[in-house]
Design a protein that fits this description.
Elements: E1 23-32, E2 35-45, E3 50-54, H1 61-68, E4 76-81, E5 84-85, H2 90-93, E6 97-100, H3 112-121, H4 131-141, H5 157-168, E7 175-179, H6 187-202, E8 206-210, H7 214-220, E9 223-228, E10 231-237, H8 238-244, E11 249-252, H9 256-265, E12 269-273, E13 276-281, H10 285-294, E14 301-304, H11 309-321
Parallel strand pairs: 3-8, 3-9, 6-7, 7-8
Antiparallel strand pairs: 1-2, 1-4, 4-5, 9-10, 11-13, 11-14, 12-13
Amino acid sequence: MTGTDIRPLAGAGTADEPAGPAARVRGLRKRYRTVTAVDGVDLDVPGGSVFGMLGPNGSGKTTLIRMLLGLTRPTAGAVELLGRPVPDGLAASLPDVGALVEGPGFHPFLTGRENLRRAAATEPRLPSSQVRPAVEEALERVGLAPAAGRRFRGYSLGMKQRLGLAAALLVPRRLVVLDEPTNGLDPAGTREIRAIVAELRAAGATVLLSSHLLSEVEAVCTHVAVLKSGSLLASGELRRLLDAVADGWEIASTDVEGALTALRGAGASAHAHGDGVLVEDGPEGPVLFEALVRAGVPVHGLRRRRPDLEELFTRLTEEESG
């Protein structure tokens, strides 16, 4: 890598007043010998969002996150974190960032509490007098207080994830980065992570998380990016991405047979679905509604059929493969 490969982005904020999105990359590329892990990615993480990074194993999610945090240097491209260039602005940005990347690393022979106190002692914005209360609050927040006196080497994978999350939440953050945060957690633990993410967003923080659990991402994320083989397939507000691939119509009616007859007569391809009818192909909504009203069919609702995140993800990755 040469020094000229990394260039500051236009519009970066000053050290005192960082501006723009919580994170931004332009033309980001990372190559390991013959393998390109990230290939020319342009991406903005809006401030205040819960941003989900999706992709199969080897898609480049963790590599991209590591470059955002300055843990890995890009082969080419520009990176900003909280309005400051990476790596030059990291000293100013990182105190406002909490991160759990590729699993937590702690001393195996120390207890969870002792490990967390060591981590807290390195926080530049945490006075020494506040270390102990901050540690206890973080342990309570992630549900690890009952096991805080046990050695880390005896922790389960889920408990290790909890301790790593506690370290990321020792002080208020503007950006929290979570790489597979529910790894090793049971359903109850997964719900707790969801609640913590919601709390962080309500407090004004930006949350960037990667996950292979699409249902969890759909439940908590406002924005998503889909990667495959190091390339960015799509990114943006989740609701708009789902609306963009919406197709067909869902119609609620107490007269399913009458609705099917009327809709098919109007040229629609339709079949019974749940408490009504699903139109997969045919005229637009107003034409369908008019045909139902003329036939005297009661209509209790008509809306665009919007796919879930799993269907969107499958479409994007299969189209890219084709």
